[in-house]
Amino acid sequence: MARIGIIGSAGRMGQALADAIAAAGETLSGGIDKGGDPLALAQASDVLVDFSSPHALEANLDAAVAAGVPIVVGTTGLEERHHFLCDDAALRTAVLQTGNTSLGVTLLAHLVREAAQRLGADWDIEIVETHHRMKVDAPSGTALLLGHAAAEGRGIDLAANSARGRDGITGARTAGEIGFASLRGGTVAGDHTVHFLADNERLSLSHLAENRAIFARGAVRAAQWLIGKDAGRYTMPQVLDL
Ligand SMILES: NC(=O)C1=CN([C@@H]2O[C@H](COP(=O)(O)OP(=O)(O)OC[C@H]3O[C@@H](n4cnc5c(N)ncnc54)[C@H](OP(=O)(O)O)[C@@H]3O)[C@@H](O)[C@H]2O)C=CC1
Ligand SMILES: O=C(O)C1=N[C@H](C(=O)O)C[C@H](O)C1
């Protein structure tokens, strides 16, 4: 049985993850929240799963590296420097960072990449996400993941071609940009739609999460898969063989 340690254990995802670990027949080695000791947790675990805060990421990666255990990073709201930290840690241990651990979104990203490639640049791309009222980051990590997939399909750089929130006299849409819009309210676990809009026709690809169990199940699969892997960065499509 794998010993899985949870960072952010008292949170919404931490609790869902504890249920998923039990359902998978694995062992919960412990959990920490703000002020907890990630190194002690890492030393007691075969793998760490982090659903906490970007502020915690550096210490969590350092703990994983120091203890020589792999780490699944599900925390969102990451900036470029956080991705560099993941790259750096991945030189010394196995790191899987993703904005969404569900099977459905992992497949959706594949479909979005394919659609963006096949439909061509005259199809505008807009990504809309809806989440519960407690979510603190926008756009969601999943929206950004889908944006990256669309940009890859198009052969463009997402950072240089993003419209993240429009307000006021914005002028007409810039050709080639990928737009993001975020809705917050209620208890929505996570809805994402990628709209492809052309002259006189539209194609929309959606994923609707009905609860957090789907993310927790995917995170446990990722954690199980990561144990024993060489140092490096890994992805959900590798875990799910998609
Ligand atoms: N990749 C994916 O598939 C998914 C990712 N997420 C992401 O996971 C993260 C957590 O989401 P959610 O569970 O809803 O959020 P919550 O706010 O419910 O939980 C966050 C938890 O992290 C803890 N925490 C905060 N700071 C630290 C720290 N420095 N060290 C250790 N623990 C800390 C909090 O503890 P305290 O209360 O003491 O501050 C809290 O228990 C978010 O970034 C979210 O977007 C969510 C769902 C799926
Ligand atoms: O905060 C959440 O709840 C979620 N966060 C992730 C994200 O930012 O995409 C994944 C999921 O949508 C739920």
Automatic annotation (TrEMBL):
The residues listed in the UniProt record as binding NADP(+), with positions renumbered to this chain, are K34
Q: Where is the signal peptide?
A: none
Q: Give GO terms: molecular function aspect only.
A: 4-hydroxy-tetrahydrodipicolinate reductase; NAD binding; NADP binding; oxidoreductase activity, acting on CH or CH2 groups, NAD or NADP as acceptor
The record's Gene Ontology cellular component field reads: cytosol
What catalytic reaction does the record list?
Answer: (S)-2,3,4,5-tetrahydrodipicolinate + NAD(+) + H2O = (2S,4S)-4-hydroxy-2,3,4,5-tetrahydrodipicolinate + NADH + H(+); (S)-2,3,4,5-tetrahydrodipicolinate + NADP(+) + H2O = (2S,4S)-4-hydroxy-2,3,4,5-tetrahydrodipicolinate + NADPH + H(+)
Domain Dihydrodipicolinate reductase N-terminal, which positions?
A: 3-100
The protein's superkingdom reads Bacteria
Residues the entry annotates as binding NAD(+) = G8, S9, A10, G11, R12, M13, D33, G74, T75, T76, T98, G99, N100, T101
Cite the annotated pathway: Amino-acid biosynthesis; L-lysine biosynthesis via DAP pathway; (S)-tetrahydrodipicolinate from L-aspartate: step 4/4
**Record's function text:** Catalyzes the conversion of 4-hydroxy-tetrahydrodipicolinate (HTPA) to tetrahydrodipicolinate.
Similarity comment: family membership? Belongs to the DapB family.
**Known PANTHER family for this protein?**
4-HYDROXY-TETRAHYDRODIPICOLINATE REDUCTASE 1, CHLOROPLASTIC-RELATED, DIHYDRODIPICOLINATE REDUCTASE
Q: What is this protein called?
A: 4-hydroxy-tetrahydrodipicolinate reductase
Q: Which organism is it from?
A: Novosphingobium arvoryzae
